[in-house]
Amino acid sequence: MIGGLGRSSAAPLCAERRLLCSLFLAAALFGAASAATRRHDWDISYQFTSPDCVRKLAVTINGHTPGPTIRAVQGDTIVVNVKNSLLTENVAIHWHGIRQIGTPWADGTEGVTQCPILPGDTFTYTFVVDRPGTYMYHAHYGMQRSAGLNGMIVVEVAAGAGGAGEREPFRYDREHTVLLNDWWHRSTYEQAAGLASVPMVWVGEPQSLLINGRGRFVNCSSAAATAASCNVSHPDCAPAVFAVVPGKTYRFRIASVTSLSALNFEIEGHEMTVVEADGHYVKPFVVKNLNIYSGETYSVLITADQDPNRNYWLASNVVSRKPATPTGTAILTYYGGRSSPRARPPTPPPAGPAWNDTAYRVRQSLATVAHPAHAVAPPASSERTILLLNTQNKIDGRIKWALNNVSFTLPHTPYLVAMKRGLLGAFDQRPPPETYDGLAAYDVYAVQKNPNATTSDAPYRLRFGSVVDVVLQNANMLAANNSETHPWHLHGHDFWVLGYGAGRFDPAVHPATYNLKDPIMKNTVAVHPFGWTALRFRADNPGVWAFHCHIEAHFFMGMGIVFEEGVERVGDLPPEIMGCGKTRGDH
Amino acid sequence: MIGGLGRSSAAPLCAERRLLCSLFLAAALFGAASAATRRHDWDISYQFTSPDCVRKLAVTINGHTPGPTIRAVQGDTIVVNVKNSLLTENVAIHWHGIRQIGTPWADGTEGVTQCPILPGDTFTYTFVVDRPGTYMYHAHYGMQRSAGLNGMIVVEVAAGAGGAGEREPFRYDREHTVLLNDWWHRSTYEQAAGLASVPMVWVGEPQSLLINGRGRFVNCSSAAATAASCNVSHPDCAPAVFAVVPGKTYRFRIASVTSLSALNFEIEGHEMTVVEADGHYVKPFVVKNLNIYSGETYSVLITADQDPNRNYWLASNVVSRKPATPTGTAILTYYGGRSSPRARPPTPPPAGPAWNDTAYRVRQSLATVAHPAHAVAPPASSERTILLLNTQNKIDGRIKWALNNVSFTLPHTPYLVAMKRGLLGAFDQRPPPETYDGLAAYDVYAVQKNPNATTSDAPYRLRFGSVVDVVLQNANMLAANNSETHPWHLHGHDFWVLGYGAGRFDPAVHPATYNLKDPIMKNTVAVHPFGWTALRFRADNPGVWAFHCHIEAHFFMGMGIVFEEGVERVGDLPPEIMGCGKTRGDH
């Protein structure tokens, strides 16, 4: 259940002065005494960077990629003034995991909640971070996220009697943030143009894996790398170093903003206790290494109890797709130890589990349930189930991804504006399919017989306040014996993860197996190869919200949908989100 | 003197329905019977192309670079529906040489006459081609022109009694179009980011010279070329072939859209008679080869009177800057000759004149005067002279170009809208300098003593209908003994070229040397190294008009100004040109 901003009693009060209203309600919800406003001025520009020692133009924030970590306390208001200095390219920034209660126009999703920010313009994102946890931000426009515009958001529990603070169900002494990414040497323009070409040109496996924006391209002496200026002593690609005090317990806040790769993350020699996922407390469990999909965040605890006189690897390895990219590495070092902080550990970096050990990864998914003291019971039933068959399809010579054979395209008039204004023709008004043909007979282990699909930008419109189930059904791709892991991300909500299964979902059988006792709430969840994932959410956040595979190329190729709920309860829209499509010259 | 659209009598009539009004007046001016409307639908997208055999992402029109030649008859209305499919990048297209009488909002100059066209949006350019001649179009946004969005416009003389047709003062049997360009393998993003970096990174000399979009990178086996996919048998880089019928006279319409290079163009073994420059008839003169600067167009006549059994080179060579780029070539072949049309000519391509033979190029400039039967006498005097010292300067660690030590920056609210609406703060309201300090003592052959400059977006506001002189004074750059050729292009007007001189312009002496008898009218003119060029125009076209060096990087680095005249006479602005800067959410 979310706060009161969407309620009809609050709406009239807030109609006139959106921003003040949001701030006022935020203060009311979380305690006026402790809530602060944290302002950031960001200049977005292209800069030459060398994250993996190869020089490449990247989209930076104040000259850096990744951007700064936003730190705040639950209930704070974040104000980010985003100046677009990309010269000819627009931008939009999504605050991934922040539900934007009362501020649906600040979700930063181009085509859904706003028009893009033009070069020379400054757009101000103002929103409340209503829940503690580990989140991230990244560009949400075309394939711009892959160009380097990303960073982390850390929201602390509010302290003191005046706030709505809560104790966290675990203790630690200090913390580190770890942002995982994959990296290509080709520009995102080239990647996107390839995907849009006939025949389609796939982006391929990444050249490098980055930890906090730092990696190492192994083939630096190749012709291509030489031509592209590979410099192994460039300061941009010095490995990230995480220093720990012996005996202390550390919280590692880990986020994956990869464009493509599912990763396995390990801290050599240090077991990890998983305590948080996507801002929700997990019933603690211990792992040697952590599977993390694009769009997910985790907190793990480690104790610095190993030999302090040597260093240890932090390692990220590709899983789920056959790896063609070397292990991404960083260094864990002990304060006071005899090893130089930057010294290469004496052992080879951990290689992670077998890339195709799906069962191993499913076990982690199943182990991730709510902490007993923080479990939020899901509604016992839902009034609507949307079953989405995830398939690879062909349209006009291009490979696409589709849900129930509908490949999603973003409109150029944001839904939020189009719906509030009743702009006809801004998007397909026909309801998209709730399920797929031949549900009972579909062979998810076989190549789809008819790969033809259609494109549409039709949204799913939900009854405000209703409980909705979504079952994401994976299947074989266009190539035989192949099914990928898709990390699906929902904007504007957290959902309960009710269950995972192998093979075809049976609506008559599987709902009875749902975990209604202690399901974890998340905003991003994996759909495992050949399997299904069931989730539930309450459509109680007025706005329009994207729901999509977080693999950048997959969403670009149509793997997403949009939900609308209670848009009539949304207050006056800020004119700054308009200016494109049918809102050109509108306000 | 231009047509009546800007006159106050026409303005009220046209206030309500701009487009119909323009069409009506165009018809009235040029004869309703013959004027046609020519519609084009253009889809602008990135495509992989290999113009010089090296694969590169280019901005294309309907998949091609260069784009289609627009062909029309004097008085026709051109309608171009421009759909932006660049995914995340905006676009704007300038119709170079078309004065946009009555349609100043269709000039396609981002920041001056319109907001850029957003991805997904379609913008319609509607304008009348009021004079016959050879023109071009190209992107006019950031450095986008360099990415491949360019093409030619050919306007024929109106025929028949019903039209305002005029006979051309020369005869020919057939014609060819020749579009000259230079080409880089680095993306325009990389070029622009380099120019905007501290320290500034210069774009360097082009990798290839293109004729009708085709060239040949010579170093195809180098590491860089291999990495970038160099394929000498790619159909995109098959040389352009110009076939001629023996004995016939051909008009070659030549345009240069280069980003940087001054060129010398030659058709091996065939003397050229220059008959047109920038849409104006020239007193014919014969050359072995033709110097052509970026933004210029020429028509030359050749007679196909050589041995038809061999082929001949068309050659373009860099002049004015020390060449580091091989000769650009194409092939002239005779119909019915014994040579294969694509066969390499037996002789080496013409190497052009010495690159630093400034006197040779000045002679051509001086020889280019109006055809006696078509000379338009300039006003005998002007009421205002703006003297612009062209210098290289340093600002905040970057090298810039400046006029009178003011380096131009484009605002993000188009002047045309800001001025019509009185939007305060959209641009610097203080008048920019009319001359430079130390005029009488300035040593144009020496490095400027104080290279510091300021930036400004202040426009020059002209009294409507007034006659204005501009003297462009060249000088030494930041490096000793160095001065470049700058091709200055004026939007919205043709100007009379009154004179050229070496060294420092003396206002007490040189105006007496002006050619007031038969000066050619042009829209682009060279300012030769260490010299000055004087021009005159009548400020009688209501609107806001850019005037800038046509070298893409130079304008990007501040080498331009903006004129306003009679903006109060401009009719209602189309809302489609708004949506950025202070016009976001405006109409």
UniProtKB/TrEMBL annotation, chains A, B:
Domain of life, per lineage: Eukaryota
Organism expressing this protein natively: Oryza punctata
PROSITE patterns linked: MULTICOPPER_OXIDASE1, MULTICOPPER_OXIDASE2
Protein location: Secreted
Database matches in NCBIfam families: ascorbase
Catalyzed reactions: 4 L-ascorbate + O2 = 4 monodehydro-L-ascorbate radical + 2 H2O
Protein name: L-ascorbate oxidase
Listed GO MF terms: copper ion binding; L-ascorbate oxidase activity
Keywords, comma-separated and alphabetical: Copper, Disulfide bond, Metal-binding, Oxidoreductase, Repeat, Secreted, Signal
Record domain Plastocyanin-like: where: 45-157, 175-336, 448-566
Principal EC category: oxidoreductase
Cellular-component GO terms for this entry: extracellular region
